[in-house]
């Protein structure tokens, strides 16, 4: 029944998504002028719709349809030495729409920049000290990185900026301005991000983008565990501190290397190895965090270290849509899974986050196919970046927070101490009075283990959020060692006890309405070849599946890109995994010896692309099932040009797929 003032309604529904309603009013309260204007406007609208319907335009336009699926043409394995040395990608993407119509898009890989390229007034990959002066190699030449890693393509002030990690010690991020010319990306200027104010950075690995347009990356500081830095620790390392990266006995040591390299960046010549290796500006407690960088319209950057996300070996952080919950992974052996919840929504760049840090506790429910777990969370503490920065600047050392001792037989500890396993070693710890907050954020992994969280993950690397299913995907590069059953008898809790699979797995973390993880299960698992398998002469892991998954990126449309960091495949590869059909398609094959890094889905105008770097090509020598290296000649005979790492992207897709 129509309202009293409505005389009639005429509905024109001429094409699938357009409906026009013409309403005639008779109410005397409406002015004649208004009524005439309304009739005119509606008649124009109706005519427009009729015109659209008569011409047939729009009803067949794929812009008005939803995407049902995307698929990539399968890429064959490298068939010969020439292909093993090339960057190869899928030849096309097919988009299937809701009405089952399809469109095909030819794909190609385009190199954006090689390390060492001059771009404007800068050099891509040039390592510099805190004052911007080039760092030198031992032969006196400029130090050019071969380690481009995490990429974030961000538009700001009408311009495009690419933030790129350099996975080095000292670490560095490049800020590159990109123009779009004739539908091609053209780098026009590059410069290192200035992080001197926060003491520089180290081993910048993978990255993600925040919902508000900034870059989040991890400082993968493998060897800056403070147990090596404190003279009162049984694990203390006595470094030469002469730039040689050796201990006083002349043996190379990674902890000493890290200290020397950061000292070179900071120009710090007063590091005191008798006081926790604290110097004028260097402190081991200043590394191992999430770093945020936001490019600005004038070409500068805002940057911060988020100490409140905890110190460990973070690969990267991923922010959830609530802009409060952030997950962090932890690379290595005997590592944790971390969740930070901000006190309030983070709506833009803020240098001072505050909130609560949690560590995962898992209960294994299955050991089949990579395993399954129930997940709960142990609260570690609450603090802010500013408060923690003050602690770090006080030049603390480990034994200000914990007493530490080496375990005895059977992992025994003296009275008052608790045995834990973290970062590949067992330790006996006793928390000092009033040091809970310092322990939670500056000794995060030790404190989490102290509180019986699960510190047994192995090579926990990439993470990506699937907005369509509200799950987080996490790659474990290898399911082995601390993920096995009581590895070497070291495990304090033994929460995870899985069969060994050195080829790795990707897990799905189910999230609740508050984005808190509740269950975790493997969805893709690699396969170690048997000695007698057909591919075993050249490959260690089955080449028809993943090997040591690292970077993972959800690109929408039920598709996760899984990328490798492996020496167990002849070529590192990227795979498209369909979360509905559970099928995988090989999408990219990199030059031999190169790791896949920097995977980022981005758009520029009507252009869609998938960024993908080749890190350290012709460096890692792949091995077969027997442990031999049948492709050694390709590694040893590589030219200087082949050895250059590069940044690039898979081109040919429309932006509408990713907007």
Describe the structure.
- This protein has 659 residues and is mainly β.
- It has a domain at 6-60.
- The protein is 10% helix and 39% strand.
- The chain is built from seven helices and 38 strands.
- A nine-stranded antiparallel β-sheet has the order 18-19-21-22-23-31-30-29-28. It has a five-stranded antiparallel β-sheet with strand order 4-35-34-33-32, with no helix packed on it. It has a four-stranded antiparallel β-sheet with strand order 7-38-37-36, with no helix packed on it.
Entry summary:
With 659 residues, the protein is mainly beta.
Features of the shown structure:
659 residues, mainly beta, five-stranded antiparallel β-sheet, 7 helices, globular, disordered N terminus
Determine Rg (CA atoms, Å): 28 Å
Q: Biggest β-sheet, characterized? A: 9 strands, antiparallel
Beta-strand fraction estimate: 35-45%
The mean pLDDT is 92
User: Can you count the helices?
Assistant: 7
The dominant shape is globular
- Supply the helix-strand structural class: mainly beta
List the helices and strands and how they pair.
Elements: E1 6-15, E2 18-25, H1 32-55, E3 67-72, H2 81-84, E4 88-89, E5 92-97, E6 102-106, E7 108-114, E8 118-119, E9 122-123, E10 148-156, E11 159-166, E12 172-181, E13 184-192, E14 204-209, E15 215-219, H3 254-266, E16 290-295, E17 301-306, E18 314-319, E19 325-330, E20 333-335, E21 338-342, E22 354-366, E23 372-384, H4 385-393, E24 402-405, E25 418-422, E26 425-431, H5 436-442, H6 444-450, E27 457-458, E28 460-466, E29 471-476, E30 505-511, E31 517-525, E32 549-556, E33 559-564, E34 573-578, E35 584-589, E36 595-604, E37 607-615, H7 632-636, E38 646-654
Antiparallel strand pairs: 1-2, 3-5, 4-35, 5-6, 7-38, 8-9, 10-11, 11-12, 12-13, 14-15, 15-16, 16-17, 18-19, 19-21, 20-27, 21-22, 22-23, 23-31, 24-26, 25-26, 28-29, 29-30, 30-31, 32-33, 33-34, 34-35, 36-37, 37-38
């Amino acid at each position: 029944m129509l309202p009293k003032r409505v005389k009639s309604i005429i509905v024109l529904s001429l094409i699938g998504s357009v409906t026009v309603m013409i309403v005639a009013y008779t109410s005397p309260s409406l002015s004649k002028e208004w009524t005439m204007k309304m009739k005119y406007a509606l008649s124009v609208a109706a005519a427009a719709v009729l015109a659209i319907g008569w011409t047939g335009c729009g009803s067949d336009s794929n812009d008005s349809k939803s995407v049902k699926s995307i698929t990539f043409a399968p890429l064959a394995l490298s068939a010969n030495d020439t292909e093993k040395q090339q960057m190869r990608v899928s030849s096309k993407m097919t988009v299937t729409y809701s009405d089952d119509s399809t469109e095909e898009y030819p794909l190609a890989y385009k190199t954006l920049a090689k390390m060492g390229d001059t771009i404007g007034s800068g050099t891509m990959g040039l390592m510099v000290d805190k004052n911007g002066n080039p760092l030198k190699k031992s032969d006196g030449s400029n130090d050019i990185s071969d380690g481009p890693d995490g990429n974030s393509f961000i538009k700001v002030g009408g311009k495009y900026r690419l933030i790129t990690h350099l996975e080095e010690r000292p670490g560095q991020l490049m800020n590159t301005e990109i123009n779009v010319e004739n539908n091609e990306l053209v780098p026009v200027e590059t410069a290192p991000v200035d992080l001197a104010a926060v003491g520089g950075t180290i081993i910048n690995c993978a990255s993600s983008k925040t919902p508000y347009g900034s870059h989040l990356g991890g400082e993968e500081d493998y060897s800056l565990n403070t147990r090596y830095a404190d003279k009162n620790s049984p694990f203390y390392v006595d470094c030469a501190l002469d730039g040689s990266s050796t201990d006083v006995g002349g043996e190379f040591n990674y902890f000493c290397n890290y200290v020397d390299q950061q000292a070179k960046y900071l120009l710090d010549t007063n590091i005191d190895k008798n006081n926790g290796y604290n110097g004028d500006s260097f402190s081991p407690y200043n590394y191992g965090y999430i770093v945020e960088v936001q490019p600005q319209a004038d070409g500068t950057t805002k940057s911060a270290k988020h100490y409140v996300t905890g110190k460990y070996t973070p690969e990267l952080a991923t922010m959830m849509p609530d802009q409060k919950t952030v997950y962090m992974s932890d690379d290595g052996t005997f590592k944790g899974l971390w969740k930070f919840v901000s006190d309030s929504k983070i709506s833009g760049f803020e240098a001072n986050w505050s909130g609560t840090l949690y560590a995962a506790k898992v209960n294994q429910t299955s050991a089949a196919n990579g395993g399954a777990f129930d997940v709960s969370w142990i609260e570690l503490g609450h603090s802010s970046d500013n408060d923690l920065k003050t602690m770090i600047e006080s030049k603390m050392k480990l034994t200000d927070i914990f007493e530490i001792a080496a375990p005895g037989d059977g992992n025994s500890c003296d009275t008052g101490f608790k045995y834990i396993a973290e970062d590949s070693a067992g330790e006996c710890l006793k928390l000092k009075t009033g040091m809970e907050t310092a322990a939670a954020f500056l000794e995060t992994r030790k404190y989490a283990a102290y509180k019986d969280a699960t510190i047994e993950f192995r090579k926990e690397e990439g993470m990506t959020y699937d907005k369509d299913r509200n799950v987080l995907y996490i790659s474990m590069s290898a399911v082995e060692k601390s993920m096995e059953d009581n590895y070497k008898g070291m495990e304090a809790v033994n929460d995870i006890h899985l069969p060994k699979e050195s080829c790795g797995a990707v897990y799905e973390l189910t999230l609740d309405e508050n984005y808190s993880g509740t269950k975790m299960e493997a969805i893709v698992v690699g396969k170690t070849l048997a000695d007698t398998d057909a591919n075993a002469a050249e490959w260690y892991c089955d080449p028809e599946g993943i090997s040591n998954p690292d970077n993972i990126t959800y690109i929408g449309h039920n598709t996760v890109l899984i990328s490798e960091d492996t020496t167990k495949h002849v070529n590192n590869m990227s795979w498209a995994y369909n979360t509905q059909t559970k099928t995988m398609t090989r999408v990219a094959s990199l030059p031999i010896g190169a790791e896949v890094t920097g995977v980022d889905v981005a758009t520029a105008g009507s252009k869609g692309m998938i960024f993908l770097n080749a890190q350290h090509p012709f460096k890692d020598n792949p091995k077969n099932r027997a442990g031999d290296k049948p492709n050694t000649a390709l590694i040893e005979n590589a030219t200087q040009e082949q050895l250059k790492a590069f940044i690039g992207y898979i081109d040919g897709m429309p932006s509408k797929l990713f907007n």
